[in-house]
Amino acid sequence: MSAFGQSDMLAITQMQVTDYQNMMTVMTQMYAADQTNRMQRWKIMQDAQMKTFEINQTVTFDSANIAKKLADKWDGYVKGGGG
Considering the chain, what is the average pLDDT of its residues? Predict the structure, then answer.
């Protein structure tokens, strides 16, 4: 005869099922938190890349304007305008 009766085995099995369900709930919560963190990091990375792109565009545009102004002054000087 077994040291445990049928009702004891049923209770142990129910505890194991409950433990497994609790573990799955915790795992699901951890996965959801991880996904949220990943999305936040992705958004931060996108924002940083966009800002870097905007700064590069501004610098490129400003540099082109400065070069154009200098070229126009040189052109004026060469054509006899004296600068």
Answer: 92
pLDDT at 82: 59
pLDDT at 36: 97
Element (H, E) at 7: helix 6-78
Query: How far, in whole angstroms, is CA 32 from its chain's centroid?
Result: 15
Judge whether 76 and 82 are in contact, CB under 8 Å.
yes
CA gap 60, 72 in Å, rounded: 18
**Whole-number Å distance between alpha carbons of 3 and 9:** 10
Token output for 55? 């700064």
Q: What are phi and psi of 71, to 5 degrees?
A: -65, -40
Whole-prediction pTM: 0.57
